[in-house]
Amino acid sequence: MGEWSEYFEDFPEEAPQPPSAEEIAKEKLDADIKGMNADAIDLITKTKQKAIDKAQQQKKQFLESINDCPQCGETKLNTYKLENASYLCECQDCGIYGSGGNFSSALHQTASAIGDNIDWRNGSLFKVSTK
Fold this sequence. Notes:
Elements: H1 4-10, H2 21-59, E1 63-67, E2 77-81, E3 87-91, E4 97-100, H3 103-112
Antiparallel strand pairs: 1-2, 2-3, 3-4
């Protein structure tokens, strides 16, 4: 059998071609976009975590008890007694939440939300009156 160069002389369309300038530029652009997306996602994640940490700090004064979560079973269901005498339950593990006029009704609403795919970190019911 002959050398590869002889084969490519017979079939030039199959000869390996160096990438064109357009292909090189497209690959660089794709890599740059992926890098910028990763940076943006990282910034969004950090900003969201700062907001969660700030909210947790604000809620700390209203924390009344920590119980077992009806959804995930972890002992991470924070119960807050708010200024307006309502109660709010938020699981720090799975994110399920519910509120009510007393602890029992807040826990019942939280348990009723099982399977609703709700997460307090995406929209909490926690509100503090600003006077």
